[in-house]
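Q: Joint fold for the lines below.
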Amino acid sequence: MMSRRNFLVTGALAAGAGAVPTTGIAADKKPRPSANDLRDWGAVRRQFALDPAYTHLGLFYMAAHPRPVRDAIEDYRRQLDANPFRTVEHLVFENAEPQRMTAKVCGAIASYIGGRADDIALTHNTTTGLALLYQGLPLKPGDEILVTTHDHFVHHESIRLASERSGASWRKVPLFDTHDAIDADAMVERLRKALRPNTRVLGVTWVHSGTGLKLPIRRIADVVAEANRDRPPDRRLLLIVDGVHGLGVESPDIVAMGMDAFAAGTHKWMFGPRGTGFVWAKPEVWATMRPLLPSFSADELFAAWGQDKAPAQPARASWFSPGGFQAYEHFWALPAAFEFHRTVGSQRITRRIHELNGQMREGLAKLPHVTLYTPRTEALSSGMVCFDVKGMTPKQVMQRLLDKHRIIASTTPYAVSYARVAFGIQNTPEEVEKTLAAIRAMAA
Ligand SMILES: Cc1ncc(COP(=O)(O)O)c(C=O)c1O
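A: Joint structure:
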């Protein structure tokens, strides 16, 4: 098969490129911390170059890189700066697809989420992933996309843009009426009732960044499976999940949750290089889709172009990784982030994040001048806590925490905004108590 590399070497570059020895691709080889090195949380925290003058409660927003990720980025950057042509040729194009860096990166993601590398497209963030899913699906007038009122702007906007192009309609449903009446059974039932025969896609968010609510994705997947029981294959209902605030916090058994497609950035809770993310989808879903952008990751696309034809085979995940040259040092360093999570221990990470945020929720629930919007139960919450302080706007709460206490909180970017704190593995129970004390003092 004609790959991009074959195409180049049969052309004008053949003599020169073939004669140059490899650059000795040794990046990514610095000693990595072992599980023993990371056995206490202080040692984990020291892997991050965070400013010690602050209490950082917004680390989910954009990752600070732990040392192994910084080292990997730096090693690849140095190689690219020393020999950009040979490094990119060697790592991106020269070998057969399974030996390329893209395959290595997809393999690292796949082994973490419990799927196949071949079912993963690399993206720059969650936003690109959601956009390529909704725009790529074969939707048409008469079809409907159902989503909830609680999803992020980029999820709704991806759907709005895709509906305008495809002619499919879309509808938003609330999963609950008030924050103190959130119940898993009731949410699942609402979704079941909201489905119509022409609903072709159900879009949901694993962990809501507006309230901190975590959805029971497995149960929602069961509702979708039930709806599909009597549908022909070409009318199936698909479940798409925006998973960015669950990835790196909750159990990594992600594919087992049963959705059809999952999009997430790896530059938030996963601590991956900034500007990286992925979409996992079932191969039968990829096969029905059409890419939006040219890919550099699938040889058959380049070969078909060389023969002035459209590709003959059905689409596959790698067709959807946006092509063009990239910030390669960031993508190539992504396996270091998955390795870091594995070394710290993903169950241990889940437990720690739940403990810290649980401590915060319970503390806030005792304060009469605070309204807590995140469910108190562990089954319906994750790494974020959203709340209001009586008599103050969320922005004023955020500003007071910063100005008086050097605590970095955030506000939720939704039509109704709340104050938000998020405790990650870099944080401590003492920081929870310090934040609670600062909020307690806002009573006056
Ligand atoms: C629920 C949710 N989805 C998507 C995004 C966008 O993420 P990204 O920057 O990876 O595109 C955000 C941003 O924080 C978010 O909160």
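Q: Anything notable?
A: Residues 7-24 have pLDDT under 50 and may be disordered. The two ends are 73 Å apart (CA to CA).
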